[in-house]
Amino acid sequence: MSVALRTGQALRRTAIQAVPTMLGIIVLCFLLLQLMPGDVADVLAGESGAATAESLEAIRSRAGLDQPLLVQLGQYLWNVAHFDFGQSTRFGTPVSQLILERLPNTLVLMLTALGLALGLGILTGSVMAVYAGRWPDRVLQLVVLFFYSTPGFWIGLMAIVLFSVQLGWLPSGGSQTIGAELTGLAALLDRLPYLVLPALAMASFFIAVYARLTRAALLEVLRQDYLRTAVAKGLPPFVIYTRHALRNALIPVTTVAGMHLGNLLGGAVVVETVFSWPGMGRLALEAVAGRDFNVLLGVLLLSSFLVIVTNVAVDLLHAWLDPRTEAS
Amino acid sequence: MAEEKGRPRHRALRAMLRNPSFLVGIAVLIAVVGIALAAPWLYPGDPLDMVAVPTLWPGEDPAYPLGTDSLGRDVAAGLAHGARVSLLVGLSAAAIGLLIGTAVGAVAGYAGGWIDNALVRITELFQTVPTFLLVIVLVSMREPTAVGIALAIGVASWPTVARLVRAEFRGLRSADFVAAAVVSGARPSRIVLRHILPNALAPIVVTTSVMVANAILTEAGLSFLNLGDPNLVSWGTMIGDGRQLLRTAWYLTALPGAAIALTVMAINLAGDGLNDVLNPRSGNQ
């Protein structure tokens, strides 16, 4: 029951912090939009080929661009509060519709990558800490250093060469078999091979980050008195490492995991391009190419929102690992 | 730090020279910097010029030991000239990020109160927006140049430094030597710059290596996506060009990526070595 209480408290605390953060991001993004050269009227005029000064003024006043900056900001906030991110200047469709088409793919990729990064990172870090100073630790440290220093998208490209071109085990791009029209479990199994390489490419850097962190944190914890007590009680080493040491060592890891979410999601832009994965990152790139700034800002806002929501999950994990968290 | 009175600088230097990973990292780094500096003499002329038959494999023609790309450009020349862009953007982006981050962190940590609260909120804001997306938006605001890219990466990467510096300053604010400086009537700017900052320098120096490494990786991603400076060869651009021929000539993708990996690994090794010496209690080794 105290678990439920803590969960509720953590949720409330995050909600209180998330609202001003989201508001700040909207204002920040809106001001960025103002710094961009040109506006909708210029774009439309460029597309139609010819425009007079009067018609430009007419377009500006229809779009509300002749209003004072603060009025425009208020209007934008009001629209976003109603989930209206404006129209795509390129496709003429609502931005929210464009984004919602891509959102599930990005979510699947992000969560798989985060899970892989945390799972493999903590596992590798624990093995390194248990064998600290001996050869398994040294070999893994080199491997981890390599992944820590290598762009994920390049690892993805090299994985395509090895697993798709040479061995033919996994598809090199896309998110599902085209025209297969599968449903249920069959569709899920069909998508799985497509997910492996992009998720690994996106996670590779973060596997290394979490492995390094877990190793350092675990070595710190292993020096504590209560672990000597556990050893003296005659507990089996596996129980000592997992139940006593790892749980405490994971606290800094979850803290940093929350801080890195923004970077993880940002990496999706490049990885989605490498694997032609139809997600929000590629939508952002298409928007850059077409100077479609409403779409770009919509993607920026929604991915920031995703980071906040995932942070709540990480906070909950943190509260479960460390019951003292509620005090802070 | 306080008890290391006798020649602390020499002691730190000796400890570094005994650290093998630091030495390897520095050696590789010096080699890369040397190649970057010597590129105009080693490979005179524009690395974007066509010089030989396209897609020569490495070793096929001794004149072009690393082969040529799909337009017959010398890969070795591209790598050497690309090192200039990668290192320059990496260093200047890190410098910009450090400058902003240290300023924000120092003010927040020293001032406390509502100033601290406001600055922490702004830092969180920048940390929530996916970094790479923010860089893309900043870069796409005007024509991409190497300077603009460094600026964008720097502006997007300062929050990590700000958090770190703030924590250091909060800890040091209540130290005795700061109280002594306050009592002796020193101005706040002098206390921050002359008394606290030198004592907070060790973790900042260590973070610098991570900042440079990440800036190089970010620049590679940007130029891979063709958002880089179109008039310069960069390792990321080379990977992006090589990707078209991934199935037949994968060395065009592999070589520039290996150059990035080698350089960033060297920076991280040097940084880890610095960390072992400057923060002996950090748990590494």
Features:
heterodimer, A: 328 residues, mainly alpha, MetI-like fold, B: 285 residues, elongated, transport (chain A), MetI-like (chain A), MetI-like_sf (chain A), membrane (chain A), ABC transporter permease (chain A)
Query: Strand content of the residues of chain B, in percent?
Result: under 5%
Extended strand count of chain A: 0
**Strand pairing plus helix content of chain B: what structural class?**
mainly alpha
Fraction of helical residues of chain A: over 70%
Helix-strand topology string of chain A: HHHHHHHHHHHH
Q: Count structural domains of chain A.
A: 2
Radius of gyration of chain B: 22 Å
Q: Which residues of chain B form runs of ≥5 with pLDDT under 50?
A: 1-6
Q: For this structure, what is the CATH class of the largest domain in chain A?
A: Mainly Alpha
> Would you list the SSEs of chain B in sequence order as H and E?
HHHHHHHHHHH
Determine the mean pLDDT of chain A. 79
Mean pLDDT of chain B: 80
Q: Point out poorly predicted stretches of chain A.
A: none
Please name the CATH topology of chain B: MetI-like fold
Shape of chain A: globular
Number of strands of chain B: 0
End-to-end separation of chain B: 20 Å
The largest interface is: A-B, 53 and 47 residues
From the N-terminal CA to the C-terminal CA of chain A, the straight-line distance is 20 Å
CATH top level of chain B is Mainly Alpha
